[in-house]
């Protein structure tokens, strides 16, 4: 049995979360509608850049506290905290639904507004974390936004371990929490980083892989915000080189993966440029891990942006494009079915047909991507996962492999993983337990820990396969 990169399915099933719900930014952003700027005077109203921001109608699209802006159409600038070069480029050229202001503002005005946004966005927030603690409590929540804030508060007050434990508990009984599990985990990451006073290594060590490892992603989502363009490569290449992070292979992966998310946001969803930054990390393996975050952000932007690096006709794009280098194709194909599914109306057979059109050598990874999405759509129900993968035809084996890895990645204590491997066709059983082991093995550096993790779910030959997958 062929083993792939150790964390190839260590990703949330984004087809379920938001691929079908990506929001296009309104083409009307930048009109002179100032109604969303609020009644109080903007804190930076006296600066030239603040005046340009107001006069150009930026408040109609963006939220930015220092400008008194509460627009909801475009990204929240207090969360994004872009650097000056990025703002200048975006204002000049537009893109992602935003019009170009090159003919509406003078070069001096563009520099002024860029300076204002890059220095004032996120003012008063701790570090680069898009989270402000308040008194909201989890037990009082009913809607998703409340849960996100409340779980962040819990992490800030009692630490991320307590918040993640409560998230795991509620995810199994509260459908609202289950559906919003990954974004909630992002907020726990923000609160957890505050709890550890910005110490990324300690915060990572205190986390878990719950909900598609959203906690780890939340820690790094704003890591690069505000960094100068000529410094970003150096910052990115050292961000995960903390001894506490490097001590655990799974955490180390999640750190590099989170960097991919951050680099895509930093570049304004410029996928080739983000991948180029990944290539500048210290090792090729770091780069490959980073590319997974880039491709995930490309399909499901954290800020509701729409990437131009997707196609409605060639549903395998950008994986089969020339600009995606061979070292980047692994994670691209391991995510591609999350883009395919909405355009084939969730039809697994049609999705399988697209997988068979993948480039030579990459077909199996497309089917593993399908398995990850199968697990998400089935809410990890063993019989449903088996039925869905059964529609993959020649790709059923790899679909099962992807599905079991997704189950265990989301929660290594989920008994549905074992139940799934026990009901798949006999010819796929060994590969299923092997796939289970590839995830369990990443949680432990020592052979004893790997064995103990596998023994929790497998015996006899099933245990042998799990241990083979775990590398133990």
Summarize the structure.
The chain has 472 residues and is mainly alpha-helical. Helices cover 56% and strands 1% of the residues.
Keywords:
single chain, 472 residues, mainly alpha, Cytochrome Bc1 Complex, Chain D, domain 2, 2 strands, 56% helix
Across the major sheet, the strand order is: 1-2
Average pLDDT reading: 84
Largest sheet: 2 strands, antiparallel
Total domains, how many?
Answer: 3
Rg estimate, integer Å = 22 Å
Give the overall shape.
globular
The ordered string of helix (H) and strand (E) elements is HHEEHHHHHHHHHHHHHHHHHHHHHHHH
As residue ranges, the low-confidence spans are 1-45, 124-128
Question: Based on DSSP secondary structure assignment, what is the total number of beta strands?
Answer: 2
Helix % is: 55-70%
Cα-to-Cα separation, first versus last residue: 16 Å
What is the beta-strand fraction?
under 5%
> Which structural class should the secondary elements be placed in?
mainly alpha
Number of helical elements: 26
């Amino acid at each position: 049995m062929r083993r792939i990169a150790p964390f190839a399915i260590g990703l949330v099933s984004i087809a379920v979360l938001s691929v079908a719900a990506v929001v296009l930014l309104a083409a009307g952003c930048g009109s002179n509608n100032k109604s969303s700027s609020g009644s109080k005077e903007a804190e930076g109203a006296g600066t030239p850049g603040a005046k340009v921001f107001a006069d150009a109608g930026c408040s109609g699209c963006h939220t930015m506290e220092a400008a008194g802006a509460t627009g909801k159409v475009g990204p929240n600038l207090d969360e994004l905290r872009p650097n000056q070069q990025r703002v200048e480029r975006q204002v000049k050229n537009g893109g992602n639904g935003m019009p170009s202001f090159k003919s509406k503002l003078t070069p001096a005005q563009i520099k002024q507004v860029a300076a204002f946004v890059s220095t004032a966005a996120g003012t008063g927030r701790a570090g680069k974390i898009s989270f402000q603690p308040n008194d909201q409590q989890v037990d009082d929540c009913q809607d998703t936004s409340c849960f996100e804030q409340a779980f962040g508060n819990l992490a800030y007050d009692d630490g991320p371990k307590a918040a993640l434990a409560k998230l795991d508990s509620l995810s199994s009984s509260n459908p609202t929490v289950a559906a919003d599990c990954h974004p909630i985990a992002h907020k726990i990451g923000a609160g957890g980083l505050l709890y550890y006073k910005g110490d990324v290594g300690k915060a990572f060590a205190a986390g878990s892989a719950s909900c598609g490892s959203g906690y780890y992603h939340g820690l790094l989502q704003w890591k690069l915000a505000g960094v100068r363009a000529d410094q970003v490569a150096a910052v990115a290449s050292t961000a995960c080189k903390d001894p506490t992070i490097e001590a655990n292979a799974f955490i180390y992966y999640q750190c590099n993966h989170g960097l991919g998310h951050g680099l895509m946001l930093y570049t304004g969803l410029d996928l080739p440029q983000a991948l180029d930054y990944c290539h500048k990390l210290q090792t090729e393996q770091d780069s490959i891990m980073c590319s997974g975050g880039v491709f995930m952000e490309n399909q499901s932007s954290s800020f509701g942006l729409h990437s131009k690096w997707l196609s409605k006709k060639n549903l395998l794009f950008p994986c089969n494009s020339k600009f995606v280098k061979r070292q980047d194709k692994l994670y691209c194909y391991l995510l591609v079915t999350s883009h395919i599914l909405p355009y084939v109306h969730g039809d697994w057979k049609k999705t399988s047909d697209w997988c068979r059109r993948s480039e030579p050598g990459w077909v199996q990874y497309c089917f593993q991507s399908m398995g990850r999405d199968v697990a998400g759509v089935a809410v990890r129900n063993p019989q449903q996962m088996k039925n869905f993968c059964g529609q993959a035809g020649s790709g059923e084996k790899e679909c099962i492999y992807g599905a079991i890895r997704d189950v265990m990645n989301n929660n290594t204590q989920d008994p549905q993983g074992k139940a799934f491997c026990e009901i798949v066709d006999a010819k796929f059983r060994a590969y299923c337990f092997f796939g289970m082991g590839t995830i369990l093995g990443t949680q432990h550096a020592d052979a004893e820990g790997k064995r103990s993790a596998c023994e929790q779910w497998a015996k006899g030959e099933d245990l042998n396969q799990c241990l083979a997958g775990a590398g133990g």
